[in-house]
Amino acid sequence: MHTWLVDLDANEPVWAAEGALTEAERRRGAQFADTLLTRRFLRSRLAVRRLLGERLRVPPAELRIAYLPGGKPYLPDHAGLHISWSRSEGLLLLGVSGSGPIGVDIEWQRPVPTPLDVLATVYPDLPAAAGPESFLPAWTLLEAAVKATGRGLLRGARDVDLLFEATGEVALRGIRGEGSDAWSGRTDVLPARGGAPAAVVAVVVRGEVARMLAPRGRTDRHAQVC
């Protein structure tokens, strides 16, 4: 398993190579009303293509990325490699696994009004130990888990079994219907650095998560963080 964290706002010449994007990706990017959102979207797709292309020794423009009905991405020409990515503000988290499904999520840290009410919309059986500080760890784990299973948040979040600690930490106990020991997941906090916002990240995989994610530098075009 490998994950990479990418600073989409870094001023790097590599981002000019938009010829690697598909026409569909460029059209989708053009739909954003804000130029910053357009730039981040296009850079995120380019980063995914470049990183996966480097790993697979395939030119980014020739890498075929397809999507299951629920939106889960996969590589039709590389069935043994599982992929997932998530974008929040100017940060992109990309994960790949050669041993089974993977789901990743990243959320920049910001105030969320009534966080437990928001969490309860997709995970209604909140225990008494759940507090406002549990929101982002729980939310990212839920997102990563349903990306790994391909079920989607509204349909799959209630199948995810989370353990809420009084300290605010949240752990993945399992995913119903997938076997009690089938999945493992972890979260970590990446501190703000060099102008990039602090973020909470989560990874869910089949088997063991290799180790906790490591901090990254803002100036890196892309950094392997796990």
Tell me about this structure.
With 226 residues, the chain is α+β, with helices and mostly antiparallel strands. It is 24% helix and 27% strand. It has helices at 23-30, 35-56, 115-120, 135-149, 153-156; strands spanning 2-7, 66-67, 73-74, 82-88, 91-97, 102-108, 160-164, 170-175, 183-190, 199-206, 223-224. It has a four-stranded antiparallel β-sheet with strand order 4-5-1-11, covered by helices on one side.
Question: What's the SSE blueprint?
Answer:
Layout: E1 2-7, H1 23-30, H2 35-56, E2 66-67, E3 73-74, E4 82-88, E5 91-97, E6 102-108, H3 115-120, H4 135-149, H5 153-156, E7 160-164, E8 170-175, E9 183-190, E10 199-206, E11 223-224
Antiparallel strand pairs: 1-5, 1-11, 2-3, 4-5, 6-10, 7-8, 9-10
Provide a brief overview of the structure:
By secondary structure, the chain is of the alpha+beta class. The chain is built from five helices and eleven strands, in the order E-H-H-E-E-E-E-E-H-H-H-E-E-E-E-E.
